[in-house]
Structure formats: C-alpha cells, structure tokens
Amino acid sequence: xxxxxxxxxxxxxxxxxxxxxxxxxxxxxxxxxxxxxxxxxxxxxxxxxxxxxxxxxxxxxxxxxxxxxxxxxxxxxxxxxxxxxxxxxxxxxxxxxxxxxxxxxxxxxxxxxxxxxxxxxxxxxxxxxxxxxxxxxxxxxxxxxxxxxxxxxxxxxxxxxxxxxxxxxxxxxxxxxxxxxxxxxxxxxxxxxxxxxxxxxxxxxxxxxxxxxxxxxxxxxxxxxxxxxxxxxxxxxxxxxxxxxxxxxxxxxxxxxxxxxxxxxxxxxxxxxxxxxxxxxxxxxxxxxxxxxxxxxxxxxxxxxxxxxxxxxxxxxxxxxxxxxxxxxxxxxxxxxxxxxxxxxxxxxxxxxxxxxxxxxxxxxxxxxxxxxxxxxxxxxxxxxxxxxxxxxxxxxxxxxxxxxxxxxxxxxxxxxxxxxxxxxxxxxxxxxxxxxxxxxxxxxxxxxxxxxxxxxxxxxxxxxxxxxxxxxxxxxxxxxxxxxxxxxxxxxxxxxxxxxxxxxxxxxxxxxxxxxxxxxxxxxxxxxxxxxxxxxxxxxxxxxxxxxxxxxxxxxxxxxxxxxxxxxxxxxxxxxxxxxxxxxxxxxxxxxxxxxxxxxxxxxxxxxxxxxxxxxxxxxxxxxxxxxxxxxxxxxxxxxxxxxxxxxxxxxxxxxxxxxxxxxxxxxxxxxxxxxxxxxxxxxxxxxxxxxxxxxxxxxxxxxxxxxxxxxxxxxxxxxxxxxxxxxxxxxxxxxxxxxxxxxxxxxxxxxxxxxxxxxxxxxxxxxxxxxxxxxxxxxxxxxxxxxxxxxxxxxxxxxx
Length: 802
Description:
Layout: E1 3-8, H1 16-30, E2 34-39, H2 45-54, E3 62-65, E4 77-80, H3 87-95, E5 101-104, H4 114-117, E6 126-129, H5 132-142, E7 147-149, E8 176-183, H6 190-203, E9 209-216, H7 220-229, E10 236-238, E11 247-250, H8 259-266, E12 271-274, H9 280-285, E13 291-294, H10 298-310, H11 315-328, H12 332-339, H13 359-370, H14 376-386, H15 391-395, H16 398-414, E14 426-433, H17 442-454, E15 459-464, H18 467-474, E16 479-482, H19 486-492, E17 495-500, E18 515-518, H20 535-549, E19 554-556, H21 560-570, E20 579-581, H22 586-594, H23 598-609, E21 618-623, H24 639-644, E22 650-654, H25 664-668, E23 674-675, H26 684-690, E24 693-696, H27 701-706, E25 711-714, H28 719-725, H29 732-736, H30 745-753, H31 760-769, H32 777-789
Parallel strand pairs: 1-2, 1-4, 2-3, 4-5, 5-6, 6-7, 8-9, 8-11, 9-10, 11-12, 12-13, 14-15, 14-17, 15-16, 17-18, 18-19, 19-20, 21-22, 21-24, 22-23, 24-25
Helix pairs in contact: 6-10, 17-22, 22-26, 23-26
C-alpha cells in the first residue's frame, strides 16, 4: 500500500485550502493509499473528534501534530499544501534525501511572495499549479521546470442534477437574491459587490435585490461599515440565513481556482463572476454557460445583473456545466501519478549531506512567515516544554495556554521598541507614511505613483490604520501595512526610500542606507511647534519634534516663503544634512495637470458618488480645520438651510479633519444633498478638482485650491480666540486679499451664488506663496534624490524620544 503525508496549516478551520486537503484525502483514500495528515496548528482530542464526526469518511485517516514530522517522515509522497510552508522541503531534503516532496500552490499566484520561495523551490520533487498561465509565470520567475498543472480535487461536489431547480431568478416573494460565501479579506473584493448593490438599488431602483454575505475574516467591520455607508441595511445581510434561490456573485480579484463558484454551479445556481485580475477565474470557467462575466465597471456590471435577474434560468445550461465540472475532476489520483511518474535524480537537488536545518530552525522560520506576531521566541520555549513528561501536560491545558498568550501579547505590544532594526535595504521597496496611516493621499501618494512609473517592479508599502485605508492603497496596487505592527517595522527596514508628510514612528528608527523624504502636509497659515503662542504647548511639541526632524534627508517645498516658515516652525537649521528641494509639491502637480480635465472630473464623480457623471452638478467643498478638542459640530452655520437656499443642482461636500472623523455620520445624514465621506477614502486634491467653490477657515486647503482659479470663501467664527491660542504666520487679508467673515446661513448661501469673477486672491497666492509649483515636480524630485543619495552616506538618528 502506498503512503502519503499531507502537511497543512489547520484542517480544523474552514477555508479553501482545508477543503482542497480534505478532497485530496478523499481521492487518495478511494485509490487505496494510506494517509497521514500533519496539522501545523496544535489541535486537541476534542477538535479531532468533532472533525471526524462531521467527516466520518475521513475518520480512518491518521492525524498527527506537526512536531511528529521530526520522526515520522518516510512516505511515498509528502505534500506541502501551503506556500509559506515551503521551507519544510529544505528540512525534509536534509534528513530524507530521497523523499518525493510535492509542493501545492493553493494561493492565487500574485499573492505569493515568489522572491521568498526561490530559496526552497529547488528542494521539491514537483510543484503543482492550477493553470497553465500560473505555471508559466512560476517557472519563469523561479527558474524551476519540475511543475505540472492540475486543478484541485472536486471530490466533495455531487456532479449530478440537484433539486429544486429554479427556473426564475425571482424567489416566491419576488426578491432577486445574490449570495457570496467567502473569507472576508481584501483579495475577495466584496466592497465592489456592495458598490454594485448601491447602484442597482438606489440608482436603478431595483429594491427587490438582496445580497447575502456569508463568511468571516479581517474585513468584517469594513463590510458592516460599507453597508451603513451605502444605506443598504434593508438589502444586504451578513451571516444571516441564506436563501435557497440565489445567483452566486463573485467579484474576487484573485482566485487560484474558485471552489465556491464550482459549488454553486454544482448546486444548480447561475454565477455572476469577475474573471480575475490575472484572468485565472476566466481560465478555469471559460467553457461554462450558466454564468455571466463582470468587468469591474459598475454601470456595465449593474446592467448585466439587471438583465440576468429578469431572464429565465435554463436547465440545459446547468446540465452543460455539470459535464464541464466532471471533465475538470476526471480521475484525480491517476492524473497526479502520471505527472510525477518520472523519478527525479538525486543530483537534481541542492547538496543535502547534512541536515539543511534543525526542527527548531524550521519552526522559527515558519512562525515568522505564517504568524509574525512577536511571540515566536516564546513559542519555541512552549514547544520544548510540551515534550516534558509532567510540565508538558500542564502547559497544554487550554486555560493556561490562553492566559499566557494574552499576557505575552500585551507584553510584546508594550515592548515593540525592542524590535531589532535589521533589514536588507533596497530601492525596489518604497515606504509611504501618509497622515500617520489615517489616510492615503497628499504628496506621499503622488510621489509613490511617480516612483512606480519608473520602477514598475518595486513594492510600495503604505502605512494604514484600518481596512478603509487598505482599500484605497490597494486600488493603486500598493501594499498596506497596519501602522505600528511588527510587519510594518519589518518592511520599513527593507525600504531605501521613506516618504512621509508628518513624522515616522519612533520605533521604526532609521537604518544607515535609508533616505527620508519629508513633504509636510500643507502650506502653514496657523503657527506650529516652535512658533506656537501657547508657551507650555510650544515647549512640549518642540522637545518631541526635534529628534524626529533629524531623520529627514530631504524636504519638499512650494516656495522660498514656505521654507522660511517651516525653518522657523521646525528649527530646520539644527539638521545639517537636510536638503531643501525647490521643485514644488507632487500633490499640486496633480492639480496643475488636471485642473481643467473634464475626463478626470468625470472619473472622480463616479469614484465618490458611484453614479453616472452629471456635468450640471455644482459642488461646494466645506473644509473646517480642527480646534484641538472635541466638539459636536464644526460650524454654527446650518448647512441644511444653506443647501436649501441653493439651486437644486448645488450640493455640499463636508471634508472633516481626520481628528473629527467621528462626526461623519452626523453630517452625511443631514440631507441627501450634503455628503460626508469616510476620511480614509478621501484624497482632498481630488475633491478640489470635483468642486467649484471652497469654504474653509484656517486650513491650508485655501492655498492649494487657489491653483485652480476657483472661488474661495473664508468662514471665520472664532478668529480672536484662535489668534490667542495658536496664532497666524501672516494676515491672509493683507497678503492675499482674502477676508474672513462669520456668515449666517443665508449670508453664506448668498456668498456662494454671488460670483463677481474676481480671482485676485488666487493670483496673489500663486504669486507670493506657491511660487515653485510646477508640472513634472514628482519626477524631478526623484531624479535629484536618487542621484544624490547614491553618492552620499546618510547619518543614522539613534536619539529617539522616550
């Protein structure tokens, strides 16, 4: 009897890889193989008992803890079913040189870090990939030709007609139900499905449409927030009872196969699906007919879904697709055996005359790749203690283990400053810190976009505080990292260039070869740090700011006056290695490029409103600045009254300061013509392009907006108090001919409509304050930084604040 070992992460948790592993076990068991499953995550007898009750046909299989692999490692075939587990192949090759080790790529290839796999790929006998396109990319990147293409086993599908079969997509109550079963993570792109539902329900008026989301994962809160954001509470249901009559909806960006799609087809349901950013879903299901294909264009896809909902559901299409599924799953084990029939000669593997790594080395490597939560060194102690006769029983007790983990996680968070700052710094990795991770916009965003154009293979990492910022960063193909996490610090120390518009985290430090580009986040009108009127606050901020400023290597500027103010506020003269760049600011290069670009305005309209473009709309952008404290409203002006006194095609966009984002719901619910977006999803430069008029008080928004030659209204309701506590660098009335007023609601509405065409203030702002703004600033900044940083050895700042 032939034997196989399967090494997986956690068979006892739901997921596509768990299903693939169970199907593989079923297929090999049916073919007469003896199977041992090694589970990386520790499991209890209760876990195993529950699993075997749920899957009685798999009860006869041997299940072992991962540690047992040290002694039990002689099998005809050993399957490694997770890409982050590929280092196991190196370990096994060292102790079992002739082992037949099979690697399974079960993750969509663009999500696999092939660079980190290249070291371990040569130790495999063969590696399975799901499609020909992924095989070609994998072979080309890894330089490995012992790969084969085979779809995962579909053993769990019935592959025969099931009842009931619904001939209409409308259920008995008249609803059209859409369903997705998915892990809640970014690659699944369920937020796009919610945009589709918003368009269908609120714009096309398809109130009968319902969308059921079943699953779990890190994006759970994001999905609930978006349901509320789009006002879909009556149409979208998360983890509630599923309907029996539904259309399966898959808008996932990436899949290695698409189990949930195949399961729905098998059960007789039409599928609406996106072909994948890499085309793999299209490759897998190209021959299927009971489906429609989506394009990730809301208007187009909504029309496709609306048409699909109203047409009959044909049984002939279902029968056709069942046959297609049978062809995919035909004789899984026999197909596998044919692919790996040719023995791999011993000299095809790297030398393994001594163990390639110890088991503890292996554990440490896997912990860093799989979990990386700071508890790796404590787990090594735990694994050793588990082997002890008496104490092993004690530490395995669930309550003791959970208590210890809770304490150690808290301890690790409090001592994250002890992380060793080591990394292989490369210019193929760029780090972006925009507004401390609360938003992805401003100069860091536009510098990152420019860098990607000249370094298309570079990885761009973006500091992100939540899943909304994650969404925005990923929309540009960048990689979000949770601000302050261990992975944040790990990736930070790999990046040669760090672009920030505030200050970087102290615990991230700075390595010798790193270059910090500071862009700050606006032309200052209100005083900052060393110039604050409040003496006590000035002392606190200046002492904290000084050592952080020493990290800066470059500072971008919009004018000589801008530099003068920043030099005073930040005491720049104390940094003797700082280079001032006078090329202008990338965020305003965007405004100069697209100020009169109707196509860009149309794109932004669709982005923010999820509706077809309406050129007759006029938007008034209201940007109140923060007052260093909590307040229930950002202005005494009644915005509902204001918008009510404006023509019907006028609408107001309230852009809150990030520190007052908690007021978003209050302002978004005021009136259908008043909009307040999540700050995390907003790029204020884009709102400038979209808007016709700006209302602000003490915000630097005034100066950037002036580049567009549009009307500016200065609303100042607490001028005297603000002057005493914060203070201004200059009198905006004298410098720019802009005068602030405390308007009533009626007066503000009149001022919005009263446009005499005088834009003297716009001209003066450009002439006196923003003299350096120009086209091409981003590329010029990068050209200067790259040329100079390749010649100069930068100092390291070790003087971190407590």
